[in-house]
Each structure stands twice: as structure tokens, then as C-alpha cells.
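Page 42, continued from yesterday. The earlier attempt failed because a stray header line got pasted into the input along with the sequence. Redoing it now with the clean sequence only.
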Amino acid sequence: MSHVVEVNRLTKSYGKVTAVVDVSFSLEEGKIYGLLGRNGAGKTTIMQMITAQLLATSGELNVFGENPYENNRVLSKICFIKESQKYPETFRIVDVLEVAALFFPNWDRDYAYSLIEDFRLPLKRRMKKLSRGMLSAVGIVVGLASRAPLTIFDEPYLGLDAVSRNMFYDLLIEDYAAYPRTIILSTHLIDEVSQILEHVLVIDQGKLILNENAEAMRGRAITVVGPMSKVDVFTAGREVICREPFGGLASATVWGSLDREDKKQAGELGLELAAVSLQQLIVHLTREKTERKAAIQ
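This time it went through. C-alpha cells are written below.
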């Protein structure tokens, strides 16, 4: 399968501050990726370099096999929906749609206008008069209707209620199935999108700490709960990514899947086992107190 994005030892520094540190990964054609991590981790900086809005300090970056900077062949294949997209003062929603048609070769006008109806957006209202949720909905419309081979959503649903967010997820999956392309979702609402994602990239303090198939990740950690002494016995020799005592009990999240013997041991010790959601796992991996190493992959 061909690679849409290839990143090799990418670094971005601002004076003495390094926002992205020696990051390497590749994105395949026709997959939905989650670019996840805490605020300020470096996610947006990476997306801005991929879309040629920032130049890397060092490293190599190819998009569709070429350097994207000032490259219209590449940029015409990318749609980047930013969290805080700015529009000209006089623009109305209808103006945004008409201009988008000029930028995206695969633009589907009929689909765009059907999405406008789905999200109940007022076509003639000026962008500066829209609520935060309406602005997000306009970005979603453009991102989906662009049908760009590489479509990137950076926190695309700020201000949207739960109904509108779920509608976005459903529309995304439906249109992705009909028109496969590479999609990057960067979001803090990890549990909401976890079933959509096919591959997960986790950034922490500018470094890539996890690069893994989403399905494989769903069994990579487990939480054990029980008497503190029994938890200590079970976790001995295992990699513990989070531990929380409460009274005489303890909860410990261990990295790695459990086999039949592990589960038997837990039962004999009287411990309860609980699955770890993708969001919980990423919280554990990126929390301040747990210095994770990039080798955990």
C-alpha cells in the first residue's frame, strides 16, 4: 500500500523551544488516523508542517511522494480544517462553499449543500456572526465535501452538541466508505472517535510515543483492582503505567495483554480485571508523573 505521508526525523524549533522532536512515521492510503495527545503536545505543529504552513527545522517530509512546500500538485490534494479557521470579514457561508469549489478538484457541490441542510446552517449569514458550533459545522461541511485525498480535521467539533458530533461521525464513516481517502482526526474526545480510528499516533511533549493499529491497542493494557498486597504480587515484574492506592486497596494499570494463565492468577488472588479504554490508556501514557519512553511501541 502506498504512503500518503512520510515523515523522517522531523523536528520543529522556535528559538530555544522545540515543539516537535525527531518524529518519524508514515500514513497509508485509505485509512483513518487519530493524532492524539495533550494540549501543547505538538500535534497541530505536525499538521501545519504536513500542510506546508510551517517549515521543519530539520528532517524529511514527503506528501504524495513530494515536498509539499509551495507545491500546488500536493496542496490541491489536501484539505486542512483547523480549529480556529479565519475567514474574510464579508464572507457568508455560501461564499465559503463557492470558494472551496475553486480549491478542491474533487469538490462535491450537491453533497456540500445537503450537509448544510443536515447541520441546519443559514447560508446567507456572515461567518463573523456564527456561533462556535456553527463555525465548526461549516468546517466539517468543507472537509467532507472536499473529498480531498488527504483530509485533516483539527478539533473539528468545538461547540457542537452531542447530537451534531454523532451526526459528524456517522457522515464521516458513510462518506469514507463511499469515497476512501486518508483522514487524520486530532481530538481530545478520544472515546467518541475510538471506534472510528484505524491507526493511532500519540504525541507527548513533541515526541511520538505510540504508533500502532487501533484494534491492537484495545487489548494492550488492563487495570487490576484489589487488596494492595495482592496487586503488588500480580504486578511484580510487569510494566505498570498507572497505580492508585485507596485505603487498603489499589488499582494498577499494566501494559501488555494478559494470557489465560495471567487471568487465572488474577482470579486466584481475588483481583478484578477491567478493560482500559483508548482515552484512559492515552491519559495514563501522557500524564506528567509517568515519564513514558518512546520505546513503548
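Notes: The longest helix spans residues 162-178.
Reminder to self: strip header lines before submitting.
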